[in-house]
Every structure is written in structure tokens, then in C-alpha cells.
Amino acid sequence: MISHLVFAFSLAASALACADHTNRQRGHLSKRFPTQKREEVSSTNPSYITSDWAYDASYNWGAIQPEYANCQTGTQQSPIALSLTAGLSSYHHPTFENYDRNVSGNWTNWGYGPAFTLDHPPDDYKGLPSVKWDNVTAYLKGWHIHAPADHSVGGDRSKAEMHLVHVDTKGHEVAVLAIRLDPGTATMPFFAQLPEMVPFVTGPGRSPDQPQRRRKRSELSEVLTGLISSQPARAAAKGNEKPKVVEDVQMDMALVLDGVYRFNEFWTYKGSLTSPPCMEGIRWFVARTIAFTSVDQMRAILGACTYSARAEQEVWLHEINSA
User: Fold this and answer.
1) φ and ψ of 125, to 5 deg
2) Who contacts 196 (Cβ-Cβ below 8 Å, separation ≥6)?
3) Cis omega (within 30 of 0) on the bond before 34?
4) Taking the complete model, does pTM exceed 0.85, yes or no?
């Protein structure tokens, strides 16, 4: 039975891996200029990756395969619950460079929500906007949105959360800046500059309205059916269709920092990526200030999202706000 379960998990592939921001412009990057017209690309979207896990079953990730063991046994897993009663950080203050200019990149949907990947030469990240804290410099590789928010504060969870993923000079993730998003009354300038949202799509070979079959199956087929039917429904797309990628999107990243006062108040802790294999060694910065969108902007964001919040993890060796 156990061997069947392991085999079944390895076959089930209708969920998507967390955005890895590998869909930078390819091949003709050096020929592109800011004034060039946006191009919709119908080829494969590298950030849209089939996987064998789902957010609505994050409690079980560590049992899916050995590479995911850290999701179960790690000591600094993310996300965690935060609170104002414990105070904010007085250490590891982030400072920003090269954010005050337009950047170009690819606009898409990572399968669970909006995503943007910055253009850069192959394996060269030093020209990207960067964040510095202590003696560490990390470079903005891309951003994506989770809905609802990963982190709760005082028991309250925002409608969505934006993750700015930063890497070292070798492209390894080392920091995530998290900004909670909620609807307000005014238009948020950062989201006003974006193209139309790219919708999420159905998992491979499965339509959102596919009925669950109830006829008798073998033990393995029953396991597979249970896994597949538990995956989050995707918005009206068919079969193996993948989200489109819009290239040459220009974006002013300073607008999103200004919306949260450039992280002048924040929580920070040692954590992990919030999807398998749940790699640790990530420095998290969570802005105290919530970024408020208009009602229409929030509806557009949520309309392009499906459930992507990992269950909050118990605080262990996270060293929240510690020196």
C-alpha cells in the first residue's frame, strides 16, 4: 500500500510549482528596447511547472517524496504567524538600489496568480534592482502574488500577498520581501501600470467542470483520483493549455516600495520558500504597512488567482526580529 501511495504521488501532476521566475526574455534579449511593442508569446511558459503537490494539502508535502522531507522536518519553515505585540525589527534594515528606474520583463500567471520576471543577461543578476541588509546584497529576480496572504498578523489575513523574490549572484534564492494586499478606496499606482491580468488555467488534461467518476477502481486508481480531484480548480481554460507570456512589459518597481514606505517598519525572520522542496536559508522581510488597492484592482487580482497559501508553520528556530 505504501509503495502504491508513493508511486501515485509521483504520477499526480495537476498542481503547479511556486513561481521560479525563469521565464526571462530569451534569445533576442539584447535586441529589445523599452520602446518596442509588447509581444504576446504563445510558446511554453517556463514558470508554469507541473508538480505533484497542492496548497490545499500542504500538511502532507513531506510524505510525497524524499526531496520534500524538509517541508515536514525543517526548523525554519514559512510562513509563520506574526504579531504587533512582539514588536517590529530593529535589525537587518533593508536598503534599496536601482529600484528607482523602469525595468522590463515578462508578464504571466504562475498558475496560481499574477507573476513578473525581470529581464537580465544569462546568469548575470548584478544589473537588477537590489536590496541590502547587513553585509548581504540580493537581486530582484521577479515577483508573484499569493491569495490569500501567506502571513497573518494578529490573526488577520489579508486578501493577497506579493512576494518580491531576490537571489544572490549565482541565482539562488536568498530573500523574499512580502507585502500584504487589501482593497481600499484609491487606485494603487503600481498595479495601474500593469497590462491586463493573465488568467490561471486548468491542470494538464483536466477541465474545471470534469465530474468525479464513481465507478469501482483499483487501489492505485482510487489514490490517483483522490489526488487529482483535490487539486484547485483553474479558470476557464482547457487541457494542457498554459498561460500566455507577455514580453517587454515596462514596470516602475519603486511604486510598490513607496506604497509600503520602503519597509521602514517590518518583521524579519529566517525562513523557507513556501512550496516544495521548502528550501530554508531565506531571509524574510514582511512589511508592517499594508498596500491598498482599489476595489476593481483587487477584484482583478483575485480573479487571476486561485488558492495558494501554505498552512502557517509553528515558530521554532526562526529568530524573529533577532540581531
Assistant:
1) -110, -5
2) none
3) no
4) no
